[in-house]
User: Fold this.
Amino acid sequence: MYTPNPIDTTNIKLPEELLALTEKIAENVHENWSVGRISQGWTYGEKRDDIKKETPCLVPYSELPESEKEYDRNTALETLKLIVALGYKIEKE
Assistant:
């Protein structure tokens, strides 16, 4: 049986400038997801239908429900925290 074992990032505190990146990364995560779905033949639909390949999430990030944005934000935030936990530094040039 598979037991997930992610790297613990609970004690990682991101500096303010990295926290500001979270929303931009979340938006880009959604854009990449959308490109993938569209390339697989998915289209917009009022409700998710795996057979018809329709999803209500094929909209711009700004139009997503807050619950969907939170999923993307969490992905972005945990990715940034992982980078820091592994000892890397992210600096803006």
